[in-house]
């Protein structure tokens, strides 16, 4: 390791010298089974990396596979398990001997057809020069990326990785049956084969990492397990714990861990040593400590108030052989009961049934003074059989009643009532269990109430930012679906929109803002509004997306967005598609053939200020289904986005487009839901009645108004309209005159006839709309034109168009 401890330390930074020393110490122990992982951890310590991984050639020699990693999970960094050795990505380039340094904009520019990581990452790929070759891949979340010292430290790590570590072997032959020994500094674990049998794990498949066994535990029991295996949360002494592990078949198995944390001596790490035994054969009435432990595990995953109540009922009713349990929140002077067990109204007092309001009773505290006193004192209270209680409580527990106030800080969050029908003697052990359960439930109830309020706020915000309903379309049917992520705050940046445009055009929009947060959702609402405003102004699709891109850049946010915008001409069955780093549309043709549209793509919105967003033509025959989606539906940890798009296209091909609602539900039913998902489907049927259209460019000549009138008269006669044309001709005279007198530039007259509805529209280059005068004197020389148009037409108005406006008027005519 000539480069690990180099000569000429003068001129090197202190950090680089410390990295050399740490790597030198690791080089002194070449037989350490976790040597490679510990070397990669030095990239996290000295180079500021969030993730570091070593890729080496696989057995087939065609793929570079991740051999070891440290830091954040790779999926959070957008890193894959394997890359093609013949490709052009950073890992392949580094394997061929070239260093690669990329920033967030570089990564976004390379991700037009693939999903971009949700955070702003800097990436480094360095070659590892040994017989098998390979690559050191490092990712940083710091705004400045890797500075000069970071790069020097990464070079030292790459040189140290060049000497591969020996394979890891599980050692446990010297341990007693059921024994284990855990090194608290590295997480390396030595276990007896008996322990692996309890975990249903083959000894040949065990890699010596404690995380491997933790991954087999029931998720609800992980918090208590982590409190044992994490040294920072422990003190020297004995530990005892019961937990569950998943089995290949059947229910989880209960195991009991007994261990002791021991110091390793000067300069040596601490070890947790002990035994793991099968606890499934324990007697049914397990210890109160185990009951409290299981209740704590259940409450740790309870996210709603109803979940808290169910966990308390499951933990107390059967062990205490109680006949009924009620858990209620305290709101002002009323108890809002969230869980009753049994749930039948007949099992509860008459006064509760008289106050029955919704699904659960709403019992007033004033009708139960004994309960009110217990809540004021804040301590569990127990009354034996025959105690003189008010009817509202006596009927809950005629054989004995326990009232548990649920404390949450300096106030009461609610109460739990436990009642027995037959006389029941509540012993000291049961009192201890009730007290412990009340303290746990009070904290969990407060946390769940906050989560309920948060989720309600999130849902309300999401509903306000997305369209409430889709508009009725001429010659088409559209449906949309949105599903929030099931992980973390259920608030995402995916959105969809359907925008009706003039002349029977419709814009289909779908997009995705980076991240899952209130900021991402707010930015999503801003981008949806901006795209709709630019579209309604009459701009072509590429200009609409370009304006939205410049707007996002000017907002100076750290987030970017992807978008797919499709402008559909319902009369002609044609469309223009613009992509900004988003997935292309999927088209299902009437014969069942499905294709992923070959639409050119531009960069995501908000990355580059000056860039092109090319328009790609699409042809739609009647019966064509257009499907737009976000990456949450097509990407998974097991496959890349291209494979997911092909799978999505096959699913669309197998769908029956006659009913779009069931099709959308079926497509979303297969989503993994690790990310939020937006889906927009439109079936193009074609317009049954196509409008008649004609246009006339008005030249600025003295006879311009007369020419416009003659064009209008000839057009109406060709359409079979020969009567009642005086009013439309008068409106043409007034609108064209106003455009010629008050504006500059081109003026265009458009005529449209749909059934018996005639629409006249005069477009000019001025954005100023005509103002209807409130009053006109006899001496006024103008201002009567708009009043005349209003008087003779059925309706009139103005619309913004690209670079100007359009003034229109509608008439009812007979053909």
Automatic annotation (TrEMBL):
InterPro entries per the UniProt record, alphabetical: Bact_Sigma-Reg (IPR052016), GAF (IPR003018), GAF-like_dom_sf (IPR029016), HATPase_C_sf (IPR036890), HATPase_dom (IPR003594), PAC (IPR001610), PAS (IPR000014), PAS-assoc_C (IPR000700)
Residues annotated as domain PAC: 239-291
Pfam family, one: HATPase_c_2
Top-rank taxon: Bacteria
Keyword Hydrolase set for record: yes
Keywords on record: Hydrolase
Hydrolase as UniProt keyword: yes
Protein name: SpoIIE family protein phosphatase
């Amino acid at each position: 390791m000539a480069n690990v401890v180099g000569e000429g330390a003068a001129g090197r930074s202190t950090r680089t010298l410390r990295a050399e020393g740490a790597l030198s110490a690791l080089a002194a122990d070449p037989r350490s089974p976790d040597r490679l992982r510990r070397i990669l951890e030095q990239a996290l310590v000295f180079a500021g990396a969030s993730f570091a991984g070593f890729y080496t050639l696989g057995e087939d020699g065609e793929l570079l596979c991740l051999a070891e990693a440290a830091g954040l999970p790779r999926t959070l960094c957008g890193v894959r398990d394997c890359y093609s050795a013949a490709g052009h990505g950073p890992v392949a380039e580094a394997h061929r001997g070239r260093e690669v340094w990329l920033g967030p904009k570089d990564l976004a520019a390379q991700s037009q057809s693939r999903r971009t990581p949700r955070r702003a990452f800097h990436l480094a790929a360095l070659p590892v020069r040994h017989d098998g070759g390979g690559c050191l891949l490092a990712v940083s979340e710091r705004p400045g990326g890797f500075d000069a010292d970071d790069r020097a430290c990464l070079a030292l790590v790459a040189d140290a990785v060049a000497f591969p570590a020996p394979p890891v072997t599980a050692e446990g032959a010297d341990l007693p049956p059921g024994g284990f020994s855990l090194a608290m500094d590295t997480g390396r674990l030595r276990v007896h084969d008996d322990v692996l049998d309890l975990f249903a794990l083959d000894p040949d498949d065990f890699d010596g990492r404690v995380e491997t066994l933790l991954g087999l535990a029931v998720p609800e029991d992980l918090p208590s397990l982590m409190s044992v295996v994490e040294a920072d949360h422990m003190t020297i002494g004995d530990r005892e714990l019961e937990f569950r592990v998943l089995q290949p078949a059947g229910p989880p198995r209960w195991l009991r861990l007994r261990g002791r944390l021991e110091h390793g001596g000067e300069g040596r790490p601490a070890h947790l040593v002990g035994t793991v035994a099968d606890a499934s054969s324990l007697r049914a009435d397990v210890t109160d400590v185990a009951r409290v432990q299981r209740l704590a595990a259940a409450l740790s995953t309870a996210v709603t108030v109803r979940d808290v109540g169910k966990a308390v009922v499951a933990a107390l009713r059967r062990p205490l052989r109680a006949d009924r349990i009620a858990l209620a929140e305290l709101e002002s002077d009323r108890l809002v009961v969230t869980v009753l067990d049994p749930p039948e109204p007949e099992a509860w007092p008459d006064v509760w049934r008289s106050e029955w309001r919704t699904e659960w009773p709403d019992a007033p505290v004033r009708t139960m003074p004994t309960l009110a006193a217990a809540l004021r004192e804040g301590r569990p209270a127990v009354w034996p059989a025959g105690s003189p209680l008010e009817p509202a409580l006596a009927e809950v527990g005629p054989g004995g009643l326990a009232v548990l106030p649920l404390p949450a800080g300096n106030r009461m969050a609610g109460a739990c009532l436990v009642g027995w029908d037959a006389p029941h003697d509540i012993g000291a052990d049961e009192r201890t269990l009730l007290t412990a359960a009340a303290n746990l439930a009070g904290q969990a109830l407060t946390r769940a109430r906050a989560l309920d309020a948060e989720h309600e706020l999130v849902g309300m915000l999401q509903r306000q930012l997305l369209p409430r309903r889709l508009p009725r379309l001429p010659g088409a049917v559209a449906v949309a679906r949105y599903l929030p992520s099931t992980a973390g705050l259920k608030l995402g940046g995916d959105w969809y929109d359907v925008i009706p445009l003039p002349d029977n055009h419709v814009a289909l929009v779908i997009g995705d803002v980076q991240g899952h947060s209130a900021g991402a959702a707010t930015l999503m609402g801003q981008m949806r509004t901006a795209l709709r405003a630019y579209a309604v102004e009459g701009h072509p699709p590429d200009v609409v997306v370009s304006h939205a891109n410049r707007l996002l850049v000017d907002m100076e946010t750290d987030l970017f967005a992807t978008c797919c915008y499709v402008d559909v001409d319902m009369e002609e069955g044609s469309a223009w598609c613009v992509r900004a780093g988003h997935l292309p549309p999927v088209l299902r043709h009437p014969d069942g053939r499905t294709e992923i549209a070959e639409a050119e793509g531009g960069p995501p919105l908000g990355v580059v200020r000056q860039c092109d967003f090319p328009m790609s033509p699409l042809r739609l025959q009647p019966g064509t289904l257009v499907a737009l989606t976000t990456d949450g539906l097509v990407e998974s940890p097991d496959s890349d986005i291209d494979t997911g798009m092909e799978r999505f296209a096959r699913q669309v091909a197998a769908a029956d487009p006659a009913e779009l609602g069931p099709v959308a539900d079926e497509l979303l039913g297969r989503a993994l839901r690790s990310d939020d998902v937006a889906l927009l489907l439109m079936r193009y049927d074609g317009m049954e009645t196509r409008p008649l259209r004609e246009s006339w460019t008005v030249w600025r000549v003295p006879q311009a108004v007369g020419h416009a009138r003659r064009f209008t008269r000839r057009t109406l006669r060709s359409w079979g309209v020969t009567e009642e044309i005086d009013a439309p001709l008068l409106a043409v005279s007034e609108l064209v005159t106003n455009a010629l007198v008050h504006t500059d530039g081109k003026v265009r007259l458009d005529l449209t006839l749909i059934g018996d509805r005639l629409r006249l529209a005069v477009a000019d280059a001025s954005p100023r709309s005509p103002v209807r005068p409130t009053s006109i004197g006899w001496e006024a020389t103008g201002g009567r034109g708009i009043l005349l148009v209003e008087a003779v037409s059925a309706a009139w108005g103005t619309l913004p168009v690209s670079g100007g406006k359009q003034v229109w008027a509608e008439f009812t005519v007979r053909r």
